[in-house]
């Protein structure tokens, strides 16, 4: 008998556990129902869309339009705890997120406040994250995952409050049935109807409960008189509920954040695919086109190193700044439209052409016609790092400086026609939204130098070079800017003593000229276009 009773109790406990535990686990594992109210401040709509998209991954997000419509219906528009509780109870929302966006210098600060749907009161301290973009960047999203989502998970579910909604639904038919026992004094019932209707608009569930506690022993006749109008009110509420289910769908068609595709939670995906904000799209790390056209200024200086006792020294070249036309453009084809988010959008092409308008050289009193030009094209890659954008380039180009003859006078300076492969690095730094600093540094690998290395000139040589640019941009409009820059190139020759001009300058056969330095100093002032 003892064994039998033990088995009976064991079976009973197992049945109870089998029925209760799955329901408990299923309820605990359910998603919290939340709403993200409209944010305030600059770029608030973009932050709101990104925040909704982030929270949808782990919670059920109710459309803010549905919340606003229900708040108007319940006359609970203000953000008091009682009103928030009233609307949350109607929509069965567990947590409410509200907040604002502030911009300080070049960063955005998002401050969020979490409220409980059961009480309408704030939960914990406010949450603050920072973003260097006009949206939730990677750091801000990570911080919200660490702070906001655990806080939401810790908020009690409004559905754990004892099933108030279900109880009301069960009571309504009972009250409707009790209307058959309506008192003969119908005039008194009609006088009570307006008073109760006005009360329901002005007071929420907390005040009804407080009023009940003050007078717990209400007359049963009064309880039976009131149900007569309540079924009508309930029917009206049911109609309004059905209308509420349709209202958000209509509003979603014109909402800026929606793209017309609704998911099972009632929230549509944010419009990331529609492109980014114009101000963000034109930053150095996001722009698709950076093209400039304007004037350049160049001055060439070339000098030689030679034996100190050499009498027939090579003549240096001392040029003055001359004006040229400069075209410089960088295009990132996969960034056009500003929709892509992957690294491929940071691959681009670059082209540059610089041609001196008019230049002459003098040898003694004779003026010799001269030309100077430089062109290059290649590939670039950039990598945005907040306010800074770093990158690398690889270009192929030609740079020529040619001095012609005038009658019988031929230049003593050999012409150069450099063929260059120049890998380089660059930096773009946003000081303010209107001012950007630029820095370029490149190494020049020479595939050819022209006539200067022929045997009847200075002969074979080891040639190395460096080039750089330092300047800045100033935005005039959203797409138009001006750019000023200081530019330099320095090219070094180390002759090997095989050319006649490096060895045959005196009576012996020893090398007389050992090296040369070809420098180009100048700058540029251009106007640019961004897209």
Account of the protein in words:
The strands form two sheets. This protein has a ten-stranded antiparallel barrel with strand order 6-8-9-11-12-13-14-15-16-17. Strands 2-1-3-4-5 form a five-stranded mixed β-sheet. It has twelve helices and 17 strands. Among the domains are: 1-28; 278-530, OPCA outer membrane adhesin/invasin (Lipocalin). With 531 residues, it is of the alpha+beta class. α3 packs antiparallel against α10 (229-252). The model is unreliable at 1-13, 15-29 and 162-274 (pLDDT under 50). The longest helix is centred in the N-terminal third of the chain and has 27 residues, at 2-28.
Residues in helix, %: 25-40%
Nearest-integer average pLDDT: 78
Count all strands and give the number: 17
| Assembly annotation | single chain
Q: Give the overall form.
A: rod-shaped
User: What Rg is obtained from the alpha carbons, in whole angstroms?
Assistant: 40 Å
DSSP strand (E) fraction? 35-45%
CATH H level, superfamily name of the domain at 278-530: OPCA outer membrane adhesin/invasin
CATH classification class of the domain at 278-530: Mainly Beta
Q: Work out the helix count.
A: 12
Main beta-sheet annotation: 10 strands, antiparallel, barrel
CATH architecture classification name of the domain at 278-530: Beta Barrel
């Amino acid at each position: 008998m003892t064994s039998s009773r033990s088995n009976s109790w064991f079976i009973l406990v197992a049945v109870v556990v089998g029925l209760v535990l799955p329901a408990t686990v299923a309820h605990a594992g359910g998603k919290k129902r939340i709403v993200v109210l409209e944010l305030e401040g600059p770029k608030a709509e973009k932050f709101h869309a990104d925040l909704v998209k982030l929270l949808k991954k782990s919670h059920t997000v109710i459309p803010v339009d549905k919340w606003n419509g229900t708040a108007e219906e319940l006359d609970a528009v203000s953000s008091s705890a009682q009103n928030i509780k009233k609307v949350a109870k109607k929509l069965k929302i567990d947590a409410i997120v509200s907040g604002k966006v502030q911009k300080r210098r070049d960063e955005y600060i998002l401050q969020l406040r979490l409220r409980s749907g059961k009480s309408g009161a704030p939960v914990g301290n406010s949450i603050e994250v920072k973003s260097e973009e006009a949206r939730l960047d990677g750091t801000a999203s990570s911080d919200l995952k660490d702070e906001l989502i655990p806080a939401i998970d810790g908020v009690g579910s409004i559905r754990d409050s004892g099933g108030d909604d279900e109880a009301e639904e069960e009571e309504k038919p009972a009250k409707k049935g009790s209307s058959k026992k309506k008192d003969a004094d119908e005039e008194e019932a009609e006088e009570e109807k307006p008073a109760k209707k006005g009360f329901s608009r002005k007071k929420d569930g907390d005040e009804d409960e407080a009023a009940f506690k003050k007078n717990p022993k209400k007359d049963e006749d009064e309880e039976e008189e009131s149900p007569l109008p309540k079924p009508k009110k309930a029917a009206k509420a049911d109609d309004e509920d059905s209308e509420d289910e349709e209202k958000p769908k209509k509003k979603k068609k014109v909402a800026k954040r929606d793209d017309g595709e609704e998911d099972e939670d009632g929230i549509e995906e944010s419009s990331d695919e529609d492109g980014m904000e114009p101000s963000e799209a034109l930053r150095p790390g996001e722009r698709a086109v950076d093209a400039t056209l304007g004037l350049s200024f160049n001055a060439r200086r070339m000098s030689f190193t030679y034996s100190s006792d050499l009498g027939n020294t090579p003549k240096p070249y001392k040029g003055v700044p001359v004006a040229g036309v400069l075209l410089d453009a960088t295009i990132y084809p996969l960034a056009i439209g500003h929709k892509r988010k992957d690294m491929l959008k940071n691959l681009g092409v670059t082209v540059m052409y610089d041609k001196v308008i008019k230049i002459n050289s003098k040898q003694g009193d004779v003026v010799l016609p001269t030309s100077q030009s430089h062109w290059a094209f290649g590939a670039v890659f950039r990598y945005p790092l907040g306010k800074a954008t770093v990158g690398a380039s690889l270009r192929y180009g030609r740079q020529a400086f040619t001095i012609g003859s005038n009658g019988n006078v031929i230049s003593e300076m050999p012409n150069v026609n450099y063929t260059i492969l120049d890998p380089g690095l660059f930096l773009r730094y946003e000081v303010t939204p209107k001012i950007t600093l630029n820095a370029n540094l490149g190494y020049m690998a020479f595939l050819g130098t022209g006539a200067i290395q022929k045997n009847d000139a200075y002969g074979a040589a080891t040639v190395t070079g460096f080039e750089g640019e330092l300047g800045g941009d100033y935005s005039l409009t959203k797409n138009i800017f001006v750019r000023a820059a200081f530019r330099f190139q320095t090219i070094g020759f180390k002759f090997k003593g095989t050319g006649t001009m490096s060895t045959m300058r005196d009576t012996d056969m020893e090398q007389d000229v050992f090296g040369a330095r070809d420098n180009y100093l100048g700058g540029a002032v251009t106007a640019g276009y961004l897209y």
